[in-house]
Amino acid sequence: MKNKTERVADRRWVVTSWQLVVAFTAVLAALPRMGRTQSIAERVAGVRDGKVRMSFAAKEGVCGDGRSITTHRSTEDWEGWCEGGPVRVVLRLRRGDVVDLDTFVGGRWRAAGEGVDLGPVSAPAAAEFLLSIARRSGAQVGKAAIVGAVLADSAVVWPTLLAMAKDHARPGEIRRAAVFWLSQAASDRATEGLEEIVDDDATDLKVREHAVFALSQRPQNEGVPALIRVARSHNSPRIRKKALFWLGQSADPRAIQLFEEILLQP
């Protein structure tokens, strides 16, 4: 039988062991939080009011001088001062909501600028975050967020833009902005999506007309055949007229052949 001293030592050992188990469990529970990098949305959510700045890599061909943004860095005879990034975005928050958003390419932040600077962030992650803002914001902020997203390097944005363009619940300005930037997406699937919007009788006529314009901005081997199909067979005379107008701007031989067919009809 253990004496009193031995029994007290046993109890102390049990208490100490239990404390160690509790402490170790707490450390294990904290490890995922300690090891996981916060998303941009989580970092921005920590700022209820004020400005948040971030920067990320621009896609190839995008440059700016801190004010204007272009996708053409030079011409044959002229080359301007144009930095190929980074893209700089500043958000203004009020009670946790983004109430304003500006996008710049090139230039530099003011050293004493107010607010929180997230520093360089992943371009695809920034695009995803900005598109999430566009999906839930009004026209002004939403359009600005789309611009920032489409400038991001290595970001695949066209599926989200296509969904926004088809979403009848979104403001018309947002949908038209999505359609315009779809026309700039370097993908055959983007053209297919634009044709779907043109053919959707439930879509607002202005949005559909903007989609016709967007088709005219696609590479000719994609845009011209799509516009010819619209001009030949669309059920809206107004949409057919728009398609013919933009075909006229293309000076493509296939467009000229279509005009000849129409004019020679008895």
Question: Could you give a quick summary of the protein structure above?
Answer:
This protein is 56% helix and 12% strand. The chain is an alpha+beta fold and 266 residues long.
N→C terminal distance = 119 Å
Radius of gyration from CA coordinates: 28 Å
Strand order of the largest sheet: 5-4-1-6
Count of extended strands:
6
The geometry reads as elongated
Ranges where pLDDT stays below 50 over 5 or more residues in a row are none
Element pattern in H and E: HHEEEEEEHHHHHHHHH
Beta-strand content estimate = 5-15%
Q: Largest sheet, described in full?
A: 4 strands, mixed
Overall mean pLDDT score?
Answer: 84
Number of separate helices: 11
- Class from secondary-structure proportions: alpha+beta
- Give the fraction of residues assigned to helices: 55-70%
Can you characterise this structure?
The protein is of the alpha+beta class and 266 residues long. 56% of the residues lie in helices and 12% in strands. It has a four-stranded mixed sheet. Helix 5 packs antiparallel against helix 6, helix 7 packs antiparallel against helix 8 and helix 8 packs parallel to helix 10. The longest helix has 32 residues. It starts with a helix and ends with a helix. 32% of the residues are buried. The model has no long low-confidence stretch (mean pLDDT 84).
